[in-house]
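[Automated response] Your request has been received and processed.

Submitted sequence:
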Amino acid sequence: DPWASFPTADKRDMQAELAKAIPGIRFTSGYRDKAYNASLRARGYHPSDNSEHLDGAALDMLPPPGKSLAWLRQQVARYDPGARLLVHDGHLHGGFDGYNSAPKLGGMKGR
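Generated structure:
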């Protein structure tokens, strides 16, 4: 195998890490393809044309019941100070360095 001598990069599992750090956190979106991103736009959402979801580098999250999006933003920032966080379209969008393996969630599941 010609690739055997190359080191493998450790992949972060942000969904598992955040679920452990913030009990009750809910994940609504992970990896999305361009067609699904376009379908969100057609339904009135505002996904970015260069969304980190297209690279599997982002998760959309909701707080546990009884907690606010502002609270969730604080918790995620405390866990990963380098996270790019934006409260947007009724959820918390998080982009994470070293993370490119977001699962298909929500409407992308099964695609």
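Summary generated for your ticket: The CA atoms of residues 77 and 83 lie 6 Å apart. Residues 69-79 form the longest helix (11 residues).
If you did not submit this request, please reply to this message.
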